[in-house]
Design goal:
Layout lengths: L4 E7 L2 E7 L9 H8 L9 E6 L8 E7 L4 E2 L3 H15 L3 E6 L2 E7 L4 E5 L32 E4 L3 E6 L8 H9 L9 E9 L2 E8 L3 E3 L3 H14 L5 E6 L2 E7 L5 E6 L1 E7 L8
Parallel strand pairs: 2-3, 4-6, 10-11, 12-14
Antiparallel strand pairs: 1-2, 1-17, 3-4, 4-5, 6-7, 7-8, 8-16, 9-10, 11-12, 12-13, 14-15, 15-16
Length: about 280
């Protein structure tokens, strides 16, 4: 890892340190990932992404994802857009298929510095989330005043979305970590707070498990649209307004959820040996 090049990227402020391990394998444990992700002493990021050789036919690369706490997770929509953009530029293609722990993800160029990603099919069986016990995932038996009556959705990772009248009145930085670690979620959960602005517009803030409050969450945006549509609060297309900007989410008739949004490179560099734990 010492002397390893990296690219710092972001999608609407949801930021990533991207490492390329396709030519030379990178050994990365939880402590090293956490050190790199640290805001004040490391490079700083919400997620650390390692691009590896694909394991499945048809994929251009495997995208390994670690949260800021060093733990590995299954999916990240904003990171998928960023990695897809890198590989499409590299291969001079306008589409690419990525492999993740949650399955294959198809992506395509969608205009200047914009990428559309097929995030696959949402699931909401209690085992799919997963939840600790059988319950109605459209109306979670979970309350932390003023958040009540949440909706559970899996977009390859677990989400609980709570709809509120005034998102500005919700202290998600206090409520989010408590709900993330609730015993109902054996693998923890991403906690979304959503306000319906119109039939095709949702204001959203997300507390990400292992990362905290982020400017945007791609899978959280997908989960919010699916949850709102299941509740009859919106149609199957909506603009999701996050702290960092806007994402377009479409829940297609074939049951796949497509997310479209911007990508950007912040800077590049090399990991200094002093950064990593001995």
């Amino acid at each position: 890892m010492r002397g390893t090049p990296f690219i710092k990227m972001h999608g609407l402020g949801n930021d990533f340190v991207v490492l390329d391990a396709r030519a030379k394998p990178i050994t990365l444990d939880d402590k090293a990932a956490e050190a790199i992700a640290a805001r004040h002493t490391g490079i700083g990021c919400d997620q650390l992404i390692v691009i590896e050789k694909p394991q499945r036919k048809g994929a251009a690369a495997f995208m390994r994802i670690r949260n800021a706490d060093g733990g590995e997770v299954e999916a990240c929509g904003n990171a998928a857009r960023c990695v897809a953009d890198l590989i499409m530029r590299e291969t001079k293609a306008d589409s690419v298929t990525l492999e993740t722990a949650a399955g294959l993800i198809a992506a395509r160029a969608a205009g200047k510095d914009r990428v559309a990603v097929d995030m696959g099919e949402p699931r909401w069986g209690w085992r799919d989330i997963p939840l600790a016990r059988d319950c109605d995932t459209d109306h979670l038996p979970l309350t932390l005043d003023p958040l009540i009556d949440g909706v559970a959705t899996s977009m390859g990772n677990p989400h609980a979305t709570f709809f509120v009248r005034d998102i500005g009145a919700i202290d998600i930085a206090v409520l989010g970590p408590k709900l993330e670690h609730d015993k109902l979620f054996p693998q923890r959960a991403n906690i979304g707070v959503a306000q319906i602005l119109a039939r095709d517009k949702i204001r959203l803030r997300v507390w990400e498990r292992g990362a905290g409050l982020t400017p945007a969450c791609g899978t959280g945006a997908c989960a919010a649209l699916v949850a709102a549509s299941r509740r009859g609060l919106t149609g199957r297309n909506a603009e999701i307004v996050a702290d960092g900007g806007k994402l377009s989410i479409e829940w297609r008739a074939d049951n796949h959820v497509v997310m479209t949004g911007p990508v950007a490179v912040s800077f590049t560099g090399t990991i200094d040996p002093s950064l990593l734990p001995a």
